[in-house]
């Protein structure tokens, strides 16, 4: 496998884009991707993104270009000298973007939360027609039954790991597991009696995109408080409620407490642009009952994080969820 380093990147930029780099720094590294900040000799700044697997690259390019064409603020993919966009390296690839200055939005500010929710709704509305235009797409996040079953498998794997370990995180996870499981059962019992099947049929006929990881981590805020959506790696055809639910959960967890006011703020702002049907709203509530965050935190811990902070994160997650279920008046008994 080719080493991803400054020498390789300089050569690729010169050969494929005619860009002479002056300096570069690795700003983000994940197991399957990297992001490099590059400054050229003309002081132009770029983001050069590496994907270990190139299969999703055509989708990322197409979504960025389509959504940008609809007027949604995104970081567009810059073309190579030959007009195409993807630089192949072994089984992976690179994509080049103009560097976007900004910081994470202040999600403690209700006005900013409203802006994030409204931008999400605008993205969902603008995505209509994307799939029908013959663009590359995946529907891996469409069927909620499959999504929940994948999460259940991850939970069971966490349970096996916790049973083998005697550390504090494992003890805490196992102590909360009966309630986590009861929430899953509560949702699964009610799911067949919702409008999910009809909504999925409608979504297949008239698909909309969902971001898949819409949170302040993937939204840049400028000095003028203008927002830009970044990172479409997880985009697919999906029902919009998962994006809304993910945003609500992320904000409450980061702020360390459930807030019915914040929940209402997100939902009301979203519906100013894209109203939800009663069936969609019911599914949003059900998804809030499902223990996504608790499973995700546990999975991250057992995959090798091992940080003592994860224990505090899990305990905070459980307390937030208890307050949420009490406030919503839904879910199993605690």
From TrEMBL:
It comes from the Bacteria. Residues 54-254 form the Aminoglycoside phosphotransferase domain. SUPFAM superfamilies: Protein kinase-like (PK-like). GO terms for cellular component: endospore-forming forespore. This is Aminoglycoside phosphotransferase domain-containing protein. It comes from Peribacillus saganii.
